[in-house]
Predict the structure.
Amino acid sequence: MSCPIDQQVVLVTGAGRGLGAAIAEAFAREGASVAINYRNSRDEAEALADRLGDKARAFHADVRDPDAVKRLVGEVTDTLGAPTTAVHNALADFSFNGDARSSLATMQWPEMSAHLETGLKGLLNLIQAVRPSMAEAGFGRIVSIGTNLFQNPVVPYHDYTAAKASLLSLTRTAAAELGPDGITVNMVSGGLLRTTDASSATPEAVFDLIAQNTPLRRVTTPAEAADAVVFFASPWARAVTGQNLIVDGGLVFG
């Protein structure tokens, strides 16, 4: 079963800015109704919703709180309709600056758990909230956001990478369980994106180095990564589930 993008209701977590905003924009461009979730970026989320038009709305919720996520899905359903696609993009506060990251000798568990709470627990909360209506409809698309650091851990983002790896595992086990309900679950893994708030602290020399080592000789943009997310929600991906698509211009082959 498939559903055209322009007939879908798409919920994107952490969509007030950065990659999440680009994902919301990509779905809106294709005619979907878009629910823009935010935790702290209220002004940015509401401005984005205004810019995207009548089929977009901003909704506040902390994805770490299961009750808040259930309330979020209820509010989206009442306003735009039951979500047909849910994209888990929310990220714990983070800056992609390798020089400022904790080494294994200094890392404390709260640094790791912060990413697990937002990434892994956030996806679990989202799946549990959207599954009933998707299963009833016999159709659903869930997309998580990963990283190419699985395959190429060149920067010691131990907390971030470990949490994203656990997210990939849940993506795949969820795909196995939810498939009979007509729900696909996939992951899009970008590399360093040029540029988001999280990557704004990355030295320009790092962007240049990545570009030099990428077959396309440039750094992937948020808009390009967002288009891959739209693919997983489209009819063209109706037989694809449990997959991790790396979108980094060919920097990592995996």
Q: What stands out?
A: The longest strand covers residues 140-147. Helices lie at 18-29, 42-52, 66-79, 109-137, 158-178, 204-212, 222-233.
